[in-house]
Specification:
The chain has 415 residues and is of the alpha+beta class. Among the domains are: 5-149, Adenine-n6-DNA-methyltransferase TaqI, Chain A, domain 2, CATH 3.90.220.20; 216-356, DNA methylase specificity domains (Adenine-n6-DNA-methyltransferase TaqI, Chain A, domain 2), CATH 3.90.220.20. It has helices at 57-63, 110-118, 121-126, 138-142, 151-190, 220-223, 280-283, 315-323, 325-333, 348-351, 359-399, and strands at residues 5-9, 14-18, 30-37, 54-55, 73-76, 85-87, 93-94, 98-103, 145-149, 203-204, 211-212, 216-219, 224-226, 238-241, 257-259, 265-267, 272-275, 286-288, 299-301, 305-310, 353-356. It has a four-stranded antiparallel β-sheet.
Length: 415
């Protein structure tokens, strides 16, 4: 039995809503009640996104027509990021760069529509108008035709694909917990000085205040190599990491690609990638490299990375220092250049002082923290495999090449 498809406009799938940003002068519009999703929140690796921007219930009075319910699809339609897509998991607002689709649940499965539209990214990019800034207007977006099977088939396809995304999201939650545990451990030991046996260690005066005896106040560059010399041959393809692969709040590097050449930053496993340019640095883009097959492999990436490598610390400790508000704040103060393109001056790391722990404490910390980092990496690799399998199935299921109409598949609960 072959699957029959109906040709419909995106606008016929439900209601299309273009978002809007409340005026920043109206402080009462901003609060903690409704997530405010922008294209920068959507990274393509997650079906649902998290944001640190929220609007208040006051905003709902004037912007109710722009509020997307749970389960709506958000599709970026302006600029270089046309095609970014996610779903809302709670009622949310978006800005004007996003077209939201509120699916008619009586006729169509919203999760299926999410997967369907994710296969149309390139087509939608190609119809974008505008000379300086590409844009797909609400009307142009609504008039795009798609082919869609009957509801029961939509639900079966959505159930299969959602199974992969459910596992991915479970792993991401576990990764987040592990990273929070590791961050807490770092702050307990090296900010609050509550490391194992600390009660038996005398605190002494230093230029930074009281620090444990045996620790020394040092410059960051005494303990960390900044942009160390690392050779990468021009010939052959090597892993390349772009700035877009770095997360604002995680150590993970979300994807790399093979490229020839060697222009850019060079790094190995155990290095920390630290964004040097605004607004990436202010947003927190910092990553820990552990995706290379072996410790002898070398990758390269954006020229806007500063590579940090341990000299006298453990690699994980360098990563946490780079993630700290104090370290990042010192770098931000040094930024110079044209507005919107300011960059960190490497000399700033000579000015950053910190309490360098004794070798025994560094070694104890490495023993406890390294297994957590390895677990994060293992879960990340599992997610990479899940995404690859899902992405192989996705076009085959959406097109009907894989016919699921006769399969006994129970509908999954809403994501």
């Amino acid at each position: 039995m072959s699957i029959e498809f109906e040709k419909v406009r995106i606008g016929d799938l439900g209601k299309v809503v273009t978002g809007k940003t409340p005026p920043t002068a109206r402080e009462e519009y901003f609060g903690t009640d409704y997530p405010f999703i922008t294209p920068t929140d959507i990274d393509g690796s997650k079906r649902h996104v998290e944001t640190d921007r929220y609007l208040s219930r006051e905003s709902k009075k004037d912007f109710n027509n722009y509020l997307l319910p749970s389960g709506a699809i958000c599709f970026v339609c302006i600029g270089a990021t046309i095609g970014k897509i996610c779903m809302t998991n709670v009622p949310s607002f978006t800005n004007q760069q996003i077209n939201g689709v509120i699916v008619d649940g009586k006729r169509y499965d919203n999760c299926f529509v999410y997967y369907l539209l994710s296969t149309k990214k390139e087509h939608i990019k190609n119809i974008a108008g505008g000379a300086a800034t590409p844009i797909v207007s609400k009307s142009a977006f609504s008039d795009i035709f798609v082919e869609i099977p009957e509801l029961i088939v939509q639900q079966k396809i959505a159930t299969i694909l959602s199974g992969y995304d459910d596992l991915i999201e479970d792993n991401l939650r576990r990764i987040k917990i592990l990273e929070e545990m590791a961050q807490t451990l770092y702050r307990e030991w090296f900010v609050k000085f509550r490391f194992p046996g600390h009660r038996k260690v005398k605190m002494v005066d230093s230029p930074l205040g009281k620090i444990p005896i045996g620790w020394e106040v040092k410059k960051a560059t005494d303990a960390i190599a900044v942009n160390p010399t690392t050779k990468v041959p021009r010939e052959g393809e090597k892993p390349f990491v772009s700035m877009g692969s770095l997360s604002n709040d995680s150590m993970l590097i979300n994807g790399s690609e093979l490229r020839s050449g060697n222009s850019g930053s060079k790094f190995i496993n155990g290095d920390t990638l630290f964004a040097r340019i605004t607004p990436c640095l202010e947003n927190g883009k910092t990553a820990y490299v552990q995706f290379l097959p072996s410790d002898s492999d070398v990758a390269f990436g954006s020229t806007e990375f500063i590579v940090l490598r341990s000299k006298t610390l453990c690699p994980e400790l360098v990563y946490f220092m780079a993630r700290s508000n104090e370290f990042r704040g010192n770098a931000i103060k040094s930024m110079s250049g044209a507005s919107g393109r300011q960059r960190v001056q490497e000399a700033c790391f000579d000015k950053y002082l910190f309490a360098h722990p004794d070798p025994k404490t560094v070694s104890m910390f490495a023993e406890q923290i390294a297994p957590i980092f390895r677990c994060v990496h293992t879960l990340s690799r599992k997610n990479d495999n899940l995404r690859r399998t899902r992405d192989l199935l996705l076009p085959k299921l959406i097109s009907g090449e894989l016919d699921v109409s006769e399969l006994d598949i129970k509908q999954a609960p809403p994501p």
